[in-house]
């Protein structure tokens, strides 16, 4: 029997705890992949919505409106299953054309063995990676719609004089977009995007809903009361402490984000054209 | 040339057969002694031992997956794994959605666990895990049912007074009652369900028969009873 610090240091380094610490990496990885992907989705969505070609702009606007209007959780639960089944259905059509049984049998969704994504014989890590990838795509679609909305607004907020001046200098539409509009829109987008980043951080426990073994999963499992029969480290109901640790983690993380985003904001403000900026500069001087 | 084609075809058949022979077993991982995650972070328990032995006998290659209890049937049906082995009692309601193998533990009593003796089991507040036979039973008994996603939370609800008692498999409650002097069994045992079996998709009768045969062979040579005694999950056959 071990006591005190020694007990604690042994307890906190069990394989199960290592999996718990590893799951923090899962969350950070999710953020690291999802944030740029969502930004890309957002950029695409905003560009589509701006295009002067009705079907394209309708597509962009529908994407933004649809995703923003549906509760996140409903979307998450729906999309992961829908994506998975859509993939398997496509694989099935391609690989097993001679299959004559229906794919939906009652509540079962049946595709041939070769169409399983990932294949049934794949090692467990591949299944986990696949589940994680589905989660990333879903996150990116959802947060991409919000980012699209923010960027769409930011593009419109760039002073029109800037675009007119660019046109007067003989720039093409495309040049105006990439050389004048995009570099200047970030300052208008940043408050909205940083807000989105915070929401994204706080949305990561949704991973748990999607069946990924994330920090919430392990915190709940580790915190639960353990009887001596099934563990070397029996303890009572410690869920509160584990969830407290998660709370601290998220607080620290969002605080660091805030500091970084503030710096970025100050940096982006340098030399920025704002409407009536020249007058303000003179008034200040 | 023809020989080449034939052997290629034979190879292809062998390849699909071996691919089909990997079976994914889904469990909850939060229900000791049936299934739980041990200190090393691996799946452990009666059903881990049982599942591995069944797969060995059926000459299947098996991998383990954990899944929340709430979505364990939907995820079987949509093909995330091929069998549920998670202390799931065989009931008519579940049988309409999925198929069961023959039971690998006999029908066993459920029991009430409470902090004191004088609990009103018919009119009080009773905790049970959501989507279990116990939850269904409490709902019909006239008591107020409070449901929780995990077995662990049902016990916590009794400890903190949120519920007067919890109804669950006696085998799950017994180690808890033993360890904690505050908790005690109250009232008579309640016989529920038709024993515990593996859940298989209805469209997968072949796998069900394979596991049925493996379970039967373990029943016949007494090794199933041995496992049941080792983990103290239920009465024996």
TrEMBL record, chain A:
Protein's cellular compartments: Cell membrane
Keywords of the record: Membrane, Transmembrane, Transmembrane helix, Transport
CDD domains in alphabetical order: TM_PBP2
UniProt xrefs under Pfam families: BPD_transp_1 (PF00528)
GO biological processes: transmembrane transport
Gene Ontology cellular component annotations, sorted alphabetically: plasma membrane
Membrane topology: Multi-pass membrane protein
Signal peptide: none
Record domain ABC transmembrane type-1: where: 24-261
PROSITE patterns linked: ABC_TM1 (PS50928)
Chain segments annotated as transmembrane: 20-43, 63-83, 130-155, 176-200, 240-261
Family the entry assigns: Belongs to the binding-protein-dependent transport system permease family.
Name listed for the protein in its UniProt record: Amino acid ABC transporter membrane protein 1, PAAT family
Organism: Salinihabitans flavidus
Source taxonomy: Bacteria, Pseudomonadati, Pseudomonadota, Alphaproteobacteria, Rhodobacterales
Automatic annotation (TrEMBL), chain B:
Entry-linked Pfam families: SBP_bac_3
Keyword Signal annotated: yes
Keyword Signal: yes
Stretch forming the signal peptide: 1-19
Cited Gene3D superfamilies: Periplasmic binding protein-like II
Alphabetically ordered keywords of this record: Signal
Domain of life: Bacteria
The Ionotropic glutamate receptor C-terminal domain, residue ranges: 22-234
Sequence ranges assigned to domain Solute-binding protein family 3/N-terminal in this UniProt record: 22-235
InterPro entries: Iontro_rcpt_C, Solute-binding_3/MltF_N
Cellular component terms (Gene Ontology): membrane
GO MF, one example: ligand-gated monoatomic ion channel activity
Protein name from the UniProt record: Amino acid ABC transporter substrate-binding protein, PAAT family
